[in-house]
Amino acid sequence: MAKDAKDVKSAVRERYASAALEVLGGGSGCCGTAAHCDPVTRDIYEAGDTAGLPKGAVEGSLGCGNPTALADLSPGEIVLDLGSGGGIDVLLSARRVGPRGKAYGLDMTDEMLELARRNQRDAGVENVEFLRGEIEDIPLPDASVDVIISNCVINLSADKAQVFREAHRVLRPGGRFAVSDIVSRGPLGKVVRASLKLWSACVAGALEENDYRGQLEGAGFTNIEFEVTREFTVPGVGGFVSAFVRASKPA
Q1: Residue 120 pLDDT
Q2: Inter-residue contact 5 to 158 (CB < 8 Å)
Q3: d(CA 67, CA 183)
Q4: Is 244 helix (H, G, I), strand (E, B) or coil?
Q5: How many domains is the chain built from?
Q6: 8-state DSSP, 9
Q7: What one-character-per-residue DSSP string does 166-220 give?
Q8: Start-to-end C-alpha separation, the chain
Q9: pLDDT level of residue 27 (50, 70, 90 thresholds)
Q10: Residue 15's closest CA among 184, 209, 202?
């Protein structure tokens, strides 16, 4: 385990602030130079999905899947994206839920929120709201959203059990949890778990599937499903997969 949750959050915030500033300055924030990121983040959206989106939303995407596709969103639903970054999945969700629905994005990094709000303005989308906060303490009322999505963010939290409890709290009865995340193929060593650099690179905080499933169940979720989308190896660290994770809050 890394030193503590504050250290992890500081490392994550620094990494993603840097990525956002790069995009705000006209560059691409995608993964920097991390060797493991390219096979994970490359080509996760179809060209038709991102057509019409601001360049900054696409360039600022740091995800490992397309949770808006697996969430099967319907018009009129309320969606919350945990760790929304540059806002690509929030904007895609807003399209799917339509003007009678709404898409929230939650992020703790000011620079990412600046990028996301700029992308919202450039896209001309009104049924979107970006919130500042942490995924362990969601600033929304109980039972206020229909669907929770997230894209390669939950692995970054040092307290995933609290993330799942908060997700369960804000979902309405019968609500859906549909995220893309990094999952470890085996136990990670103490040196890996202690590396803040590997935490912020979406590696050291990854759970094994059984642990991920157990923590979701502990928070009250049912109908838990895992679907592997990509497999990759980080040299000297271990094997990982990108996975779609689905669950529901009992009605």
Answers
A1: 95
A2: yes
A3: 15
A4: strand
A5: 1
A6: H
A7: HHHHHEEEEEEEEEEEEEESSPPPHHHHT-HHHHHTTSTTPEEHHHHHHHHHHHT
A8: 36
A9: low
A10: 202
pLDDT tens column, 129-180: 999 999 999 999 999 999 999 999 999 999 999 999 999 999 999 999 999 9
> Would you say residue 64 has pLDDT above 80?
no
**Cα-based torsion angle of the residue sequence 74, 163, 90, 31 in order, rounded to the nearest 10 degrees:** -140
pLDDT higher than threshold 70 for residue 203 = yes
Quick one: which of 163, 166, 242, 164 has its CA closest to 206?
A: 242
Q: Is the pLDDT of residue 220 over 60?
A: yes
Q: Give the domain CATH number at 133.
A: 3.40.50.150
φ, ψ dihedrals at 190, nearest 5°: -60, -35
User: Average pLDDT of 96-105?
Assistant: 97
Token pair recorded at residue 65: 């899947």
- C-alpha to C-alpha distance for 208 and 85, rounded to whole angstroms: 24
92: its two tokens? 């895609």
Residues 75 and 91: their CA atoms lie apart, in Å, by: 14
Provide the Cα torsion 39, 82, 204, 227; round to 10°. Answer: -50
Name the one residue in this structure whose structure tokens are 């997230």: 150
Is the distance from CB of 136 to CB of 166 less than 8 angstroms?
yes
Residue 4 has what pLDDT? 80
